[in-house]
Amino acid sequence: MSGQVQRGGFSLVEVMVALLMLAITMLGMVRVLGAAVDLTGAAENHRRALDAVGAVAQTAAPGIDYPGGRRPVSSPGLDGLPGTADDPSPSAPGCQRQVDALASASPQWLWVRAWCGVAAGSDAEGSGSPASARLLVAR
Question: Which pLDDT score, from 0 to 100, does residue 25 have?
Fold first, then answer.
């Protein structure tokens, strides 16, 4: 028997195709992981914005003067009410809150908005960002 030995295995082309498919799959997994990390950060900013709005909603009282415009979110000042003029420097960087009194209605209503994780100069109100919260509160 002068037999020829048949060697088994994969050809170079088959190995290259398998490596290409593996690389594409790994890139897809990295993209999914990146999206999950982004959503986790957005959820944390959304929770901080809800906390900023809820703090005003829980302490809203008649006759309290809230300054207009966006202000950095900070802990309550001497009066114990968040969002008023006596609040100290911000404790949560990157969060802003705006409290507007709507005096035309009875009872008086407060329109409370908060933005977290947005640039200071950007207009996040119309962007539909997941890092914003709004609440209408009667006082």
Answer: 97
